[in-house]
Amino acid sequence: MARLNDNYLKLKAGYLFPEISRRVSEFTTANPDAKVIRLGIGDVTRPLVPAVLKAFHEGVDDMAKGESFHGYGPEQGYSWLIDTIIDKAYKPLGVELKTSEMFISDGSKCDCANILDIFDLSNKVAIGDPVYPVYNDTNVMVGRTGEADEKGYYENIVYMPYTAENNFAPAFPEEKVDIIYLCFPNNPTGTVATKEQLKAWVDYALSNDAVIFFDAAYEAFITEPGIPHSIYEIEGARECAIEFRSFSKTAGFTGVRCGLTVVPEELMATTKNGEKVALNKLWNRRQSTKFNGVSYPVQKAAQAVYSEEGWAQVKEVIDYYMENARIIREGLTAAGIDCYGGVNAPYIWLKTPEGMSSWDFFDKLLNECFVVGTPGSGFGPSGEGYFRLSAFGDRENVETAVARIREKWGK
Ligand code: MLT
Question: May I ask the CATH class of domain 6-47+309-409?
Answer without folding.
Answer: alpha beta
